[in-house]
Amino acid sequence: MFSACTIGQFNHKTLPSTSFTPHHVKLNLTMNDFEYLGETEISVSKRTYLGMFTCLDSINGVYKDIHHKTFTTLYGNHNIQINKNLNQAVYKVIEQYPTADYFVSVSHTKEETRLFGGSRITYKAVIKAYKLKIHN
Predict the structure, then answer these.
(1) What is residue 131's predicted lDDT score, i.e. its pLDDT?
(2) Mean pLDDT value of segment 36-40
(3) For residues 115-129, b (16+ Cβ closer than 10 Å) or e, as one string?
């Protein structure tokens, strides 16, 4: 009764095979494979009052409108560790080196001046830009 509902003939074959897709790919790069483009210092200055009120003064030395914000994140397999306060200043690196392939955060500093009832804080970071060399 069940065989009457099946029309056609089915053949199934099993052949030994293997995949040529590699499990791991290793790329050996040295500093000779990179072209150094330059470095940029980024900064953010802000004031805090009573430990909870914050006022942003400048981004990269320029007073910024509080209604216009630009956040840039540099990332890859391992995110570049940049202080969260500097996220609004990273755009400067992208603008100066738009053709860069890699960015390396070199140093971070935090300058704090204590005021009566608050403080003035300036965050700075130096980021270097690199581009892959094309070998013929």
Answers:
(1) 92
(2) 94
(3) eeebeebbbbbebbb
Average pLDDT over residues 3-16: 63
Residue with tokens 């397999």: 77
Q: Helix or strand or coil: residue 106?
A: strand
3-state DSSP of 46-58: EEEECCCEEEEEE
Q: Which residues contact 135 (CB under 8 A, 6 or more apart)?
A: 33
Instruction: Identify the residue with better confidence: 67 or 92.
Output: 92
Q: Report the candidate in 90, 81, 86, 82 with the shortest Cα–Cα distance to residue 123.
A: 86
Structurally, the chain folds into a number of domains equal to: 1
Closest CA to 60 of 73, 70, 51: 70
Residue 60 scores a pLDDT above 60: yes
User: Is 19 among the domain residues?
Assistant: no
- Half-sphere exposure in the Cβ direction for 136 (13 Å, CA): 0
- pLDDT at 2 (0 to 100): 53
- Domain with 119, as residue range(s), is 36-132
Specify the 3-state DSSP secondary structure of 91. helix
